[in-house]
Structure formats: structure tokens, C-alpha cells
Amino acid sequence: MTAISKPSFPAATILGYPRIGPNRELKKALEAYWSRPAENPAQSVLDTLAQLHERTVRHLSDLGLTDAAAIPADTFAVDQTLDTALALGAVPARFRADGFRPAAPDTAQGIELITALSRGTDRLEPLEMTKWFDTNYHYYVPEIGPDTPLSAHPESLIERFVTTRDTTGAITRPVLVGPVTLLLLARPETTDAPGTQPFDRLNDVVDLYIQLLTALKDAGVPWVELDEHALAAEGWDVPRDTIIDALTKAYTRLSFPSNRPDILVAVGYGDAGEAAQLGLAATDIEALAIDLDRGNEPGEAALEAWGERPLVGGVVGGRTVWRTDLGRASETLDRLKATARGPVSVGTATPLLHVPHDVERETALDPDIKEWVAFADQKVAEVVTLSRGLSDGWSTVAAELGKDALIRSRRAAHPATNRKEVRARTAAVQQRDRERASADERRAAQAQRLNLPPLPTTTIGSFPQTPGIRTTRADFRAGRIDQAEYTQKIRAEIAQTVRTQEELGLDVLVHGEPERNDMVQYFAEGLDGFVTTQHGWVQSYGSRCTRPSILFGDVSRPAPITVDWTRYAASLTDRPVKGMLTGPVTILAWSFVRDDAPAREVADQVALALRDEITDLEAAGTAVIQVDEPALRELLPLTLADRPDYLDWSVGSFRLATGGAETATQIHTHLCYSEFETVLDAIDGLDADVTTLEASRSGSGIVDGLAAGNFPRDVGPGVWDIHSPRVPTFDEVAQRVRHAAKVIGADRVWVNPDCGLKTRGWPETEAALDRLVAAAVTVRAELTHDDAASAPSVAAASADTTARAAEGSLL
Ligand code: MET
Ligand SMILES: [Zn+2]
């Protein structure tokens, strides 16, 4: 380290604010542009972005973020990672070959490019999308290979800064994903040679960040924020030592030029670790933001090395909707101030994109519970209060601290947060409650009861949620139709869905989930201990938002939730109808969960409610029950040391939910959205009879992984990517079935789509399922044929006459 500068950093800041707009304005603008671009050109998205950004800046200064550079300029059209990739010109070769040119993100051309990259085109697969750290937000995975051309595109960052300054007077702080994190989050291009890593391009990428920073400085930008959240996570393809070493080199180079803004490096989502802090301290960056919500307080060595530069203590968590414990936060800040050599600012631990805008709008929320809750605006106010207390003395904010303590004690004493009978039931749980008969016994009993063909076909649960279904639900909610009419309309949907599945020839049917708004909220509404919100939307990916329920108290099930619909569906057919539940881990992952009880306890409470539901489904004659756990991987802690405990309680709660099922009841589980390789043991530990997985986009990767890992259970690797309206060809589906049957064993494979079909339309659903059934029938025939001829492998019997005949009948 050469010179230690002492730039002044604002006393209060946040790392980011919700971007979708208080009334989901951005979602609406994007979807209007995507569905009717003639009337809503890219410019209309840009206009909305500009309006939202201006609103956010004015609003945040009203809330007290008044200092220069206190407000992050984090208005991204769909995703911060994608915008950063575009600022670096990272356009994959297949898009360039199709005429797409690099462009700055917030330009008409940039919006077109973002649209193509995030949604794909007729000819091009979109960028992959995956979980952003351990959150329910998804980012678009940049593709950066050894030959991907890169170029700096600072224009829209500058334009945003200058326009905001000119219209509002506020000096904002441009935000980019930092170079190390960007490359760790990236993947090679699909055509790149195996073994190449985006991380190999760090030097090139740093060159471009230097260009971006220079351009920003020339436009008058005083501070930029570079987010290096990847430092808080473990398990990257690149060894930790290499990452730290590269981090130090990258920021040494980035901070070397004098013609650049001051650099704030932010590490949220956990602890950066001392090595990373020391590495950054060895460079000339000006400020560091650390997560004091989930991370540790920095040690003496890091503080010493950091010297007199500003530190931002992220004491206000950005991941939950609960009020910050102001008393505790003030103590943390006091300790940091006492040990730090330089100034201490107050900030959030992560960007606030994971929480909704403003709890004040929740007029229907029980007032007792509402006062426990803090959405983004309330969290900004907490930051401002804490920063005032830290600089002017805690007595100046005594009223706020006192109020917080009072609310906290009211919450602890609220009867719903500590219900004796619920606590007694979880306390009485025994290990045997999490165990079923042996897998072999179950398999035999279920085979006898269900009598299914090899390679049985099924779906994952939901069928197209048509406008008619949505209207029915909305009408019922608004009181425009009564219970009887609602039941009759939903039954009509179920009947139609059952009939269609019978006609298609599926083996295990579903009722189609027309009554469900959302797979978690639906259960939250049927359970005690949850509240739902009116405006509590958070961005999930792109234009998609979810409205998580709030799990605030002890959980129990006042009455059966799904049994009537399932029983009705079953009454219409002789084939088995699969009961459909959302598992405890996913219910927790996709809700805002109380922070005043251990996750283990909360998960078991939810599990016991589901266990009762399973008992009731069984009593209604249900022989197959699916318990969805798509979020199992998502909650996996970022640090390896924390994983065993998580896997223990999460798997344990699933087993508690399903452990009461009879031997002859076939329990399915379903996982999607993520890489499963790291949690295959946990998936096995769920002890489900059948596991369906999203698999079609991974090539044969997951299937081969399951085979290589000798995954001992029946599996349904998805053979149809349901994320786009594209109908797979018969050959594609048959090839996937054939391959799975070959490497996993035909007696263990199910044939199903990747996930539920609720976002699909009926035409593609019927066409694709028709092919799926035909593929299963064809490969079954090949098996029999092969057995007769003792052919060595199923795969050898490629598209033979049976397959062609079957396909001919489809086209
Ligand atoms: C995100 S997993 C979805 C599973 C659910 N049963 C459905 O089909 O919609
Ligand atoms: Zn799914």
C-alpha cells in the first residue's frame, strides 16, 4: 500500500434498493415491451427506468440519505450481473453471430440485447439463470470464455449519473458487480473448450473496469461501489487462495490510476474473511462495506491493515423483513468505532432488493404484527437513525431505541409466537417419526398397489394457469362469486385437466393446481402462523416478482388444505392421482421467516402440519403424494462449515413431514432451479421413493451424475424444458429417456417434464406431453425388443422404426 487517503464517505448508506418499483412499474414496462414491442418500444422501458430511478433518488433523500454518494445508482433493467456484463461488452459468440452487438445497458440497443440474452430468441438459447448466493433472487449467468471479446460501455452509467444530478441535485454512486465476483459467477461460453474458466480473464476484465472508472471520473462521479459478494461464499471452482491472490492483484491495479472515482468495495451475504479483508487492505481502495448482520466483526489484524480509511458497518440486514434490533446494532457499531482506526459509517448488510418497498402500505396487516416488520423504507430509516446515534450520541435517538425495545418485548410476549401445544408437539418428536419402512419393502408394496409400466409417465403438478383460472380466483377473493360457484369452476378445471391427461395416456395424474396462486402462499394461507401481504412484492428474476408470506408465529394446521380437490380429481379416473404438497424447506425458503425461533424448530412445526395433511390424503385413498422441495439447494449455506447443520434440519424436516406415510404410499419429491451435484447425498437422505429433477438443460450432466453417484432411488430427470414455449422434438425426448434408462436402469426411471406447467399454454403442453408419452412408450418397446434379442444396451436401439412410426403419428 502506498498512500493512505482519507476521503470522506457518507455516514449513512444502503448497498441497494428494490428496483422493480412500488407498483411493479418496471415489471409492467418490461412485459409490455416483450409482448407488444410495436406499441411499447425499448424506449418505454428506458423511460420507466429513468422515472423509477428519479423517484428512488428523491425518496431516499427524503428518508435521510442526503450526503453525496449515499444513494446507490442501482437501477438495472433486469439484473445487476447482466448489466455489468454488458458494461464490459460480454456478448456470447452465438449472439454476435446472429447480429447482436455490444451495447451499454440502458440504451435502446442495450434493452434489446438484455431481452435477447435473458429470454433467448427463436434461434438462440438464453443465458442460464441461477440463484444469487443463498437467496431467492436469480441472476443471469454471464458467459465469458477465452475468446469472448470485451469492450467498455460506460455510457449509460454516466448518463444516469448526470441526469440524476441535473434533475434532482443528488450525487449518486454507480454500482457494478466487482470483477472477481463477476467472473466467479460467470461460466464459459457453451462452445468453449472444457477446463477454461472465466476467472482466467481477470486481467482483461480489470483493464475494462479501469476504462469504466476513468470515464466515470471524467463525468464527475466521486464514488463507485463494486460488489464483491462472492468473497462471502465458498465452494467456487477456483481455490480460495487463488481468489484472494487475484483479488489483491485486481484491486491493486484498479486502485492504482489517479484518474478514477473513490472505490467502495462491498461484501454482503456473509463474512469476507480476514484473508480477503487483508488482501483488500493491501490495495489503495478507499472504503469497505462489511456485513455485520451475518458476518463477523473484523479482527484486529484487518482493522490495523485497513488503517484510517472509512468502514461501512452493515448492521441492518437486507434479507429479512424484521425490524433491526437497534440496541444490539448500536452496541456492534460502538465496538467497531472503538476498534477501527478510521471513520465508521452505517449501512445495510446486502442490497435491499430482497425485501418489499414499504410496510406502511400494508393496511390489512394485523397491527400487532405490522409493527414488528421493516421493509426497505423502514430499513433505510433504521440506517439513518443508527448513523445519527453513532455520530451525535445515542441519547439523540433514545426515543427510537426505546420504541424498538418496547416492540421487541411485545413481540416476545405475543401469544402467537409461543403456543404451548405446538411447542410440545415438536418437543415430543422422536427419531423414529422421521423413518419409514425400508426402501425395498416400500418399493415392493407400492409396485403391487400401483402396478405401473416401466418408465412411468407423470407431470410435476401444475397445468396451464389460464386467464380464466386467474379470473376465477380473483373473483372469489373479491367476493364477486361465492364459494359454491368457485368450487364448481375449479372442479371444472380439474375435470378438464384429468380428462386431458387420460387422453394423453399419462400414467400418474395430477389435479393441476388451478386453485393455487403460488405453491407456498397457498399453504401459508391454510396454516396458522403466517400472514400474507398486499404489496409485498420482491423481484425473483427478470420481470418476475413473488410476494412471500410472512411466517411470524408458531405454525399449525387448522384444517385439511388439499384433500377435497385431490379427492375430487381421483373420483374422475381409475388412474392414480398424485397428491401435491409443498415441503417444509421450500415453505421456509420462499417465505419471510421469523427470526425469533431456530429454523430447525420452525421447519419441524411446518413438517408436522404437512404430516397431518399426508395422513388425511391417505385416508382419502391417495396412493402417491409428491412433496416439492425445489428450494432445498437454495438455502444451502454459503460456507462449508455451516452446511452439515442445515442439511440435518432441512432433510430432517422433510422426513418428519413424510415419515408417517404408509409403506404402500409412494412419496415423490421434486427439485428444480439449481445444480444438485453438491446435495445429492441430501436428496438421497430425503428418503423419497421417487425424485423428479429439472435436468433437460444440463445435457446429460445430471443423469450421468446420478448414475455415477449410484443414486439409489427412482428418479425422473426432466425431459422437457418447460421454461419456454418451445415443444421438444420426439427425438430429443426419446433420446433423453433412452439415455436415462441406459445409465440409471429402466426399472428406476420416470418420464416427466422439468417442472410444473403453470406458466405454459395448453397447445404446447398437449403437444409436448404427447411426445413425452410417445417417447416413453417407444423406449419401453425397445426394452422389450432388446430383452428378446438380448441386445447389450438400450442406447444401441436408436431411432428405429418404432420411434419413427410413433413420431409420424404425432406430426
Ligand atoms: C418450482 S417447483 C413447482 C412444483 C409444483 N408442483 C408445480 O408443478 O408447479
Ligand atoms: Zn419445479
TrEMBL record:
Residues 431-444 have a biased composition (Basic and acidic residues). Its cofactor is Zn(2+). It comes from the Bacteria. Its EC number is 2.1.1.14. It is an enzyme of class 2 (transferase). Residues 12-339 form the Cobalamin-independent methionine synthase MetE N-terminal domain. CDD domains: CIMS_C_terminal_like. InterPro entries: Cbl-indep_Met_Synth_N (IPR013215), Cobalamin-indep_Met_synthase (IPR006276), Met_Synth_C/arc (IPR002629), UROD/MetE-like_sf (IPR038071). Pathway: Amino-acid biosynthesis; L-methionine biosynthesis via de novo pathway; L-methionine from L-homocysteine (MetE route): step 1/1. Signal peptide: none annotated. Keywords: Amino-acid biosynthesis, Metal-binding, Methionine biosynthesis, Methyltransferase, Repeat, Transferase, Zinc. Residues 410-448 are annotated as: Disordered. Residues 455-776 form the Cobalamin-independent methionine synthase MetE C-terminal/archaeal domain. Pfam families: Meth_synt_1, Meth_synt_2. Catalyzes the transfer of a methyl group from 5-methyltetrahydrofolate to homocysteine resulting in methionine formation. Belongs to the vitamin-B12 independent methionine synthase family. This is 5-methyltetrahydropteroyltriglutamate--homocysteine S-methyltransferase. It comes from Kocuria gwangalliensis. The gene is metE.
